[in-house]
Queue: 4 jobs
Job 1
Amino acid sequence: MRRTRALGVFIALVMIAPAARAVDGISLEIGTSNSASASVDITRIGLQWNWAKRWALGANWNIGGYWEVDFGHWSNDSAQRTNSSIAEIGLTPVFRLQQTHPGAIAPYAEAAIGLHLLSETSVSQHRRFSTMFQFGDHLGLGIRFGHRHAFDLGYRYQHLSNGGIKKPNHGINFHQIRLQYSF
């Protein structure tokens, strides 16, 4: 089973390697999901590719976005856990409303719905996902700062579930802090 997972991760990395030269940013997320049925911590590393198209909203705002590929690790130390560790890979188009003026700090808000693949289908007896395939939607707020606004610090509220494909579909919610650097 571990060899199969390792092979899957290797194949995924080989598939995105040619596009890695064009990466516009890299991010690190840390977060938690505290519920009565499971306490799960998440760590993710992400790669971003900016969209070429942006839509102006007045002189100082625009709507744009980016593609994000992320690799995550869930750590579960709950007493009733079914899996103590879950690996995740995701692909998400992210829409972002952002301020474009050249000030020191530029705020933004974002929304997204993406696709995620998990290595396991449960974190506890009471938190089952039924399928490895999950939809992940999030809402986020943050600020861009630094030279060229290259740094990005934000908060995300994310929900993952299989969208009713199969029951049970308990889903899971994460509160995340995210730091991104844009090249």
Job 2
Amino acid sequence: MSNVIVVGYDDSPSSQRAVEFAKGLAKEAGASLVIAHVLDWSPYSFLTPTELEERHKRRKEELSRAEDALIKPVVESLAAEGIEVDSVIRYGKIADTLCEIATEKDAQQLIIGRIGEDGVIARFFGSVAGAVAMSSPVPCTIIP
């Protein structure tokens, strides 16, 4: 296993705390960070070829906006502090995709912030943090 830490990031306060926590770990252990952002996406089964083409165009635009607005500033800030950092932006089910990224990057740890629904909604549908904790291929740290 490599010395890589994957951090789920969506610019929420808890994901910002997750980056700060991971930064401290990376400095102590000489690890590199992978900042991962997942755009939630579900496929539609009955789209015309024209609709599929338009949707593909919108996906590319959303990925570009996420890179510029969310990921690039964090990556530049971490790199300026001397931390080796990479980024990944994908569409998919958030928990599943973060776990896939951790596996692909041969991560030693996955760090995410705990955000989202509380109470009844989380009990019925689950939470991203809970799903990651249950399915992560590596140790997972959830930051409040």
Job 3
Amino acid sequence: MRDLAADIESTWQSRKNHTGVTVKTISDRELNAIGKKHRRPVREVCVACLKMGVTPLRYLRNSPAITLMDQIILAESEVAIAGAGGLGGHVILLLARLGIGRLLVFDSDTFDETNLNRQALCFSNNIDTFKPEEAARQCALINPAVEVSAHIMAIADPCQKSWFRNTDVMVDALDSAEDRLFLAKLSRELGIPLIHGAVAGFEGRVMTVFPGDKGMETLYRSKAADGPDSSLEPAAENLLGTPALAPALIAAFQVMAVLNVLLKRGPISNNSLLHLDLATASINAFTL
């Protein structure tokens, strides 16, 4: 580790940031070279740089909204995303650009042409590709300091809870009530906060669910009950469609909620739901 620090110390360069403050910086090329020399993951080298007060150039414009100490927290965090489609694709790419250290991506589906209208990970040349694998490939191109674990399986499939022993936050980017309720149960059992998101037409919703909250159960009643009372059930999505705008908007709000949880700041309230409607340019908050 001492040799690694010495190489970082001899490599960083001084430059003024966008606010006119002189800071220590290092480029991606130098991070990769140091990692290769010491046979260390780029994420580990990145964390070492941040702890030495050296800012990778890719994070320079995050300041001062995201401080150096904040960036260290993000680089050492792990987020699990259930679903890599309309919502999940945008969430994954935003988390990668922000510098979340480890991403666990779960999805059993492949891309098809109907995904091209809204799914950020879908392109004409990757149709029939498994979504988690594409997420890992694109994140590697965007930010080599982010480690992506791709799981070609639905979150509702039997899985080992040990996979989530280092997970700090879970993100719900699913499209069925049954899977959402399973994910809520899993996050509650593991004691991990869950960021729920759903879209239909030009509207959507976001909610932070902490262990012990019953928000998801309130939104998604079991089939044995009188039926779901939510306006954003999959039937509404089928009725209203899913243009590109709503998934991009709701995903941004979900990622902000992830930041608020990881950095312990911002409006974090349990059983509080945000409903956003692009068609009417409105945001409404509800307490469940």
Job 4
Amino acid sequence: MTYNDLKDLLDTESHRINRQSFIAEDPVQFPRRFSDKRDIEIAALLASTIAWGKRSMICRNADRLLSLMDNQPYEYVMERGYEDLPDCNIHRTFFARNLRHYLRGLHHVYARYGSLEDFAAKALAGVEDHHSWHLADALNRCLAEANDGNSDSRCLPLGLDKSALKRFNMALRWLVRDDGIVDLGIWTVIKPSQLYVPLDVHVGNISRQLGLLMRKANDRQAVDELTEALRRFNPQDPVIYDYALFGLGVSGRGGELAEMANDL
């Protein structure tokens, strides 16, 4: 497989998956329910936070989570409705106590900055290298401040020097990419060219089979390596290929593609 063959494959798969029909079975549907920027931001953070496991379960539980907030996430946060939230399971190992922790921090963010994007701007997210990790660190500190100095790794990872930040990078993809198809593109503080690939096990495996990723661990260094590889094909929008890697992983063509990639 030549460079051009691989680019054609990635472009074709991205075009096949990055369509309106993708939305109905993906967690991206939840921030898309709203028109107010603040509702979109909160829904994006929460839906991405519980985005691990079967997509059907993720979507079912994200829908239930928003129902707990009367489908008015910003108003619920600002009125501190979460303090009356009964103990319950939200999604797998994410419970009401974790949600309360997150929403207390978001109350601080919105009360002080007005929007999550303005918070990101103050945190220099569009200026600093590795902005995802820089912004996650700033948000973790805000969450801890709102919770008597306590941290909660169920909300955002704490070991940011190692974490791939898969779910947070996915939320940023939703908020930043602006091609008008699946992702919402409501932020300008970060450019699409600055985004990092949301790296999970399946994306990591197919990327290795294609020769795009050599590192064995699915960690922060692997995100760097894979994103840089994808920038060769599309410097302005490397994360468009998240759709391609997802689609190729689901298709079960890994063995065939690995054999083809050996010729690259």
